[in-house]
Amino acid sequence: MRFVIRSLVLQTLAYAVFSAVVLGAESKSLQIFFVDVEGGQATLIVSPSGQSMLIDTGWPGFDGRDAGRIISAAKAAGIDRIDYVLVTHFHRDHVGGVTQLASQIKIGTFIDHGPNMEDAPDAREDYAAYEKVVAHSKRLTVKPGDQIPMKNINVQMSILPRTLVRLAP
What we know:
The chain is of the alpha/beta class. The chain has five helices and eight strands. The longest helix has 21 residues, at 2-22. It is globular and about 45 Å long.
């Protein structure tokens, strides 16, 4: 499962990079920050136009460690808000940092694949915390083929349906 998620994130990043080149982006460069969240995921993309997308938010807790690292990356990128936060799935190491992050930086739109489909206690708890944050924000539920409206780059969703994920016995 982790391989599938990483593969999807890398495909999205590669598509964004190549799209920026093809679209003849302004003189500013596409910036991509891979934020160290200790085994989870957080990738900040800033387009040549200055729009930003964060893919996943890392872990909760740890005295705000992951949210702090994401904020540091945003400052290094010269942004004071995150236009889009894309949550790939509702595991603690990917969505857990949403609450802490949203309390420290303005977030324009949250993007996800829809309701949590897992019955594990941690996934239910993390999804409930996520729902509380996005209840006060704009939210976009995406499906394969949908595009995120970012200037100068094309971001197209490529989501692998759960029925295609084969887990080892």
